[in-house]
Every structure is written in structure tokens, then in C-alpha cells.
Design a protein that fits this description.
Blueprint: H1 4-23, H2 31-57, H3 67-77
Length: 86
């Protein structure tokens, strides 16, 4: 359930920026370009955030440590007799 709270909050934030931002642009010769830039910025920021957030929820690979390194750490930390036969 706690996964939905940040998803909804951040999506609502970028939705407000993407919809409300263009409404605040003053009249001028570049009004359409500025509005487009605000909407595209909101979309890209939200897309980047959601990809990173969802990737952290279910990573495809975890840390990979070679067995040799694990055995060396075990020896240095003092619990080697249970892992390494001498």
C-alpha cells in the first residue's frame, strides 16, 4: 500500500505543473513555445522519476559477489572455520 502514496503524490504534482503551468504564461510572441516547453518538461521529469522509482521496487539484478571474495571476507572477519575447510 505504501507504494501507491509516492506514485499518486508525484503524479499529481507533475500533473499540476503540466496543466497549470501553461495557464500562467503571459501573452507574447513565444507563448505557445513556452507552454509546450513546460508540458514537455513535466512529462519528461515525471517519466524519468517513475522509471527510476519503479526500477528500485523490483531490480532485475542484485549485487553479485564472487565466492572467492566471500571466502576472503569470511576469513578476515573471523568466522572462516564454518565456511572454509583447511
Amino acid at each position: 500500500m505504501s507504494v501507491w502514496i509516492p506514485l499518486v503524490a508525484v503524479t499529481a504534482f507533475w500533473l499540476i505543473i503540466g496543466i497549470g503551468g501553461p495557464l500562467l504564461v503571459p501573452r507574447g510572441p513565444n507563448k505557445g513555445i513556452i507552454q509546450t516547453m513546460i508540458v514537455l518538461t513535466a512529462v519528461c521529469c515525471h517519466l524519468f522519476w517513475i522509471v527510476v522509482y519503479l526500477h528500485q521496487l523490483n531490480p532485475l539484478i542484485g549485487p553479485q559477489i564472487p565466492v572467492r571474495t566471500i571466502l576472503w571476507l569470511s576469513e578476515k572477519w573471523g568466522d572462516a572455520p564454518s565456511l572454509v575447510d583447511k
